[in-house]
Specification:
The chain has three domains: 105 residues, Acyl-CoA dehydrogenase/oxidase, N-terminal domain (Butyryl-Coa Dehydrogenase, subunit A, domain 1, Orthogonal Bundle), CATH 1.10.540; 113 residues, Beta Barrel (Butyryl-CoA Dehydrogenase, subunit A, domain 2), CATH 2.40.110; 145 residues, Butyryl-CoA Dehydrogenase, subunit A, domain 3. 48% of the residues lie in helices and 16% in strands. The protein is built from eleven helices and ten strands. Bound molecules: flavin-adenine dinucleotide.
């Protein structure tokens, strides 16, 4: 499918879910099940799975186009985006047996792999300090610890988990001794307690308490102790994909605000004639195009299998800032109506704010570029 055809197809699916649909879920804090089911059945969420395992075998470029169009339509892809990048860990580092076990089910829409558990309260952005521990006992691992802000757990069958398998004080490098597992949430029972965390957006996110959760050793991805390097590749894909969602958000704000600015008349002329309204929208548009160009650069490197850590990070920062600039310009354009729920701007405004913080906060992006691109001393 050509890029434009793919974008058109995603747009027409999203058009079935208008502002009313998203507002109702936002108000009731409910999961947009019908939307996610439709996207899954259309094959969009498994587009990165190779054809040999039942997927469409597309590249990250197409996945980015899908996410951008979803957010540009006014939808909230945070309800389902994780399937795109969590699966990458299985794809790149899973054994043939593991791929055959999980990927066809995901591609067929029978299995959901929507949850990715890394963050812990006591570690924060310093991922190597996570303390959730998976202890090997015979043919199983027994997990104890807790995680915070783990999204979509209640709407997923499987979850990718990063846990320590060697204590921090016994590893040579801080990034060592971490391992990745696929947890079957349907079998977790009482050993995993899920406590929802309320946030300012409709985002099913949770605190997790592991109390002796048993995971079969055959669910460990790759080698024990090398999990950190495995999830880094996935994190680059995540940053590029979420950067694309921010590009979509930015366009959502600019599309709507430009239309409104042309229609709304105050003092006998369209408000868009005033430079105070027009210029912030033009500036946000330019920044959005720049973010999309950076995204395209990152995606080309990723799809070619080349290193893209810096580009993925820069894409995420630039796009999230462009979306936030566009969000504020739209708020100003809509005046009081920007704050009225009916117009949708305030909902998207809240949703767009998340991307400055997650999946990695922009300060961490600046630290990465300062250290790894500019060669400056490590700042933490
Ligand atoms: C709605 C939502 C959904 C999420 N979903 C998931 C999920 O599904 N899975 C998952 O694993 N995580 C998830 N997260 C967690 C998210 O990735 C983290 O919140 C994010 O990485 C920041 O970590 P933190 O909140 O612990 O902030 P902290 O690490 O406590 O940082 C707080 C602030 O201090 C700054 N800071 C800290 N250290 C430095 C430094 N050395 N230099 C400069 N600034 C610094 C940070 O940039 C940030 O601005 C989610 C978060 C939210 C809010």
């Amino acid at each position: 499918m050509l890029d434009n055809e793919l974008r058109d197809a995603v747009r027409s699916l999203c058009a079935r879910y208008g502002e009313d649909y998203w507002q109702a879920h936002d108000r009731d804090r409910t999961y947009p099940e019908a939307f996610v089911r439709d996207l899954t059945q259309a094959g969009y969420l498994s587009c990165l799975i190779p054809e040999a395992y039942g997927g469409a075998g597309l590249g990250l470029r197409e996945a980015c186009a899908i996410m951008e169009e979803i957010n540009r339509s006014g939808a909230n892809s945070a309800a389902c985006h994780a399937q795109m990048y969590t699966m990458g860990t299985v794809l790149r580092h899973g054994s043939e047996e593991q791929k055959r076990r999980w990927l066809p089910g995901i591609a067929a829409g029978e299995l959901r792999l929507q949850a990715f558990a890394v963050t812990e309260a006591d570690a924060g952005s310093d991922t190597t300090r996570i303390a959730t521990f998976a202890e090997r006992r015979g043919d199983r691992y027994v997990v104890t610890g807790r995680k915070i802000f783990i999204s979509r757990v209640q709407h997923s069958d499987l979850m990718v988990l990063l846990a320590r398998t060697t204590p921090l004080d016994r590893v040579e490098k801080r990034t060592g001794g971490l391992s990745v597992f696929v947890v079957d949430l349907r079998e977790a029972g009482d050993a995993l307690r899920v406590v929802p965390v309320e946030t300012m957006i409709n985002h099913e996110t949770n605190e997790l308490f592991f109390d002796g959760l048993e995971i079969p050793a055959e669910n460990r991805i790759g080698e024990e102790g090398k999990g950190f390097s495995y999830i880094l590749g996935g994190m680059n894909a995540e940053r590029i994909l979420l950067g694309s969602e921010s590009v979509g958000d930015a366009h959502y704000f600019i599309d709507r605000a430009a239309r409104y600015a042309g229609e709304r008349e105050v003092f006998g002329r369209p408000i868009g004639q005033n430079q105070g309204i027009q210029f912030p929208l033009a500036r946000a548009y330019i920044r959005t195009r720049a973010a999309a160009a950076l995204r395209d650069e990152a995606v080309a490197l990723y799809d070619a299998g080349a290193p893209c850590g810096a580009e993925a990070n820069m894409c995420k920062l630039t796009a999230s800032e462009a979306a936030w600039e566009a969000a504020n310009a739209a708020m100003d354009t809509f005046g009081g109506y920007g704050l009225a729920s009916e117009y949708g701007i305030e909902r998207k405004f809240r949703e767009a704010r998340l991307y400055l913080v997650a999946p990695v906060s922009n300060n961490m992006v600046l630290a990465h570029v300062g250290q790894h691109v500019l060669g400056l001393p490590r700042s933490f």
